[in-house]
Design goal:
seven-stranded mixed β-sheet; six-stranded parallel β-sheet; alpha/beta; Rossmann fold
Length: about 400
């Protein structure tokens, strides 16, 4: 039996989270436990094989204090100001470095889903796989989210060197889209590193998603003669939820009745709610905190369209889930979206430079026209992604 360790920098594997931890959850759920002894590691958790089993069976419970800390950050401005200060971020990365440096795990296969956790673990494993989910180099990704980090050049250089060491020592580097791969390597000249990389598109459990029933309480959110739109994302700047809200205002001015549901939490929550008040949209926009995956799927099934306006799109899982539902998607014509969406065939692409661009696209769509998802469902099925990874493990 081979020991395989999955790692991400923070948090834990779950069906109801986004990013790498959702991918890890989907993979470990499908691995044959008679062939692999599966463990997981992050700065927050170390899960052994028994805990992994309980996690998959939905019996494992995570530290509520850590969950509350994130909500505290999302809700309170002063908390965000403290936790995003240059001084605190320096302390944060030093603390994580100290914690990771004490870990001395080993095994047959390491599959890290970020370059930092890989950096601390790779030396004690026979086979070393690295999946990059970030929007470009990790330093660029961090400074997009924490602009104040740009003032700490020594820390950034340190983090950059760790990432370079990781990708040089990875046996295979995997990206979830061609767009992600090109974005990562655009500032890097080492040809040999690009040559050992490959693309494995993210996947979702199409059959499971299609089996989830629409919940009656969600159906009640629909209003007669009013289009219902949905977006699901972290409420941060790069997600551009403000553009979606402003597009609802412009649709209202065009006498196009629309209602928007926003699912998610993040540092811009209060700011976005204030924007709705300013635009007199408090009755037209509903904010919901993060939901279980089956609730999100149910809401997708009753929405007239799912909208995402994000910049630097890699390959959003939530867009794939909407497609698996047969929900009409309206997304930014950027990055990985173009690898899965054929405009007018299985969804709608729009070059979103402003809320007006988005409003005009929403307004122009024939919502009575059926879209063709048959090939899309085959392409995004989770088994394709899992089998590609399983081949790498073997």
């Amino acid at each position: 039996m081979k020991k395989i360790v999955f790692s991400s920098f923070t948090k834990y594997p779950s069906e109801s989270v986004g990013g790498p931890n959702k991918i890890i959850y989907q993979i470990i759920k499908r691995l044959n436990k008679d062939s692999f002894n599966v463990e997981f590691m992050s700065a927050d958790y170390k899960l052994n094989s028994d805990q992994i089993k309980n996690l998959i069976e939905d019996h494992f419970r995570f530290n509520t204090i850590k969950k509350m800390g994130e909500r505290f950050y999302n809700k309170y401005f002063l908390a965000r100001k403290l936790f995003t200060s240059s001084l605190y971020l320096k302390y944060y990365f030093f603390k994580k470095h100290k914690k990771w440096s004490l870990i001395n795990d080993e095994g047959d296969i390491l599959h890290s889903h970020d370059s930092f956790s890989f950096y601390y673990l790779y030396k004690n494993f026979n086979r070393k796989l690295l999946t990059i989910h970030s929007k470009g180099r990790i330093v660029d990704d961090l400074t997009d989210f924490f602009p104040q980090l740009k003032n700490n050049k020594k820390l950034l250089e340190n983090l950059n060197q760790r990432e370079i060491e990781s990708i040089k020592n990875a046996e295979v580097i995997v990206f979830p889209s061609n767009a992600a791969k090109e974005l990562f390597f655009e500032k890097m000249s080492e040809k040999e590193l690009k040559e050992k990389s490959l693309v494995i598109h993210n996947g979702v459990d199409v059959k499971l998603i299609q089996s989830i029933e629409l919940k009656p309480e969600h159906l009640k959110l629909k209003e007669k003669n009013k289009k219902l739109f949905l977006t699901v994302s972290k409420l941060s700047k790069i997600k551009r939820v403000d553009l979606i809200i402003k597009s609802i205002k412009e649709l209202k001015e065009k006498k196009f009745p629309a209602k928007l549901i926003i699912i998610g939490e993040g540092p811009l929550e209060n700011e976005l709610k204030q924007l709705c008040e300013k635009l007199q949209l408090t009755n037209d926009v509903i904010f919901m905190s993060s939901k279980r995956n089956d609730d999100v799927i149910s809401l997708m099934k009753c929405a007239d369209a799912f909208i995402m306006a994000s910049e630097k799109v890699i390959f959003d899982m939530v867009v794939l889930e909407a497609l698996a539902c047969g929900c009409r998607v309206i997304v930014n014509k950027d990055g990985g979206n173009c690898e899965i969406i054929d405009d007018g065939v299985n969804g709608h692409l729009v070059d979103i430079k402003s809320s007006t661009d988005l409003a005009e696209k929403i307004f122009s769509i024939d919502y009575e026209k059926n879209l063709d998802y048959s090939e899309t469902w085959q392409k995004i099925d989770i088994e394709n992604m899992f089998n590609n990874y399983l081949n790498l493990y073997k």
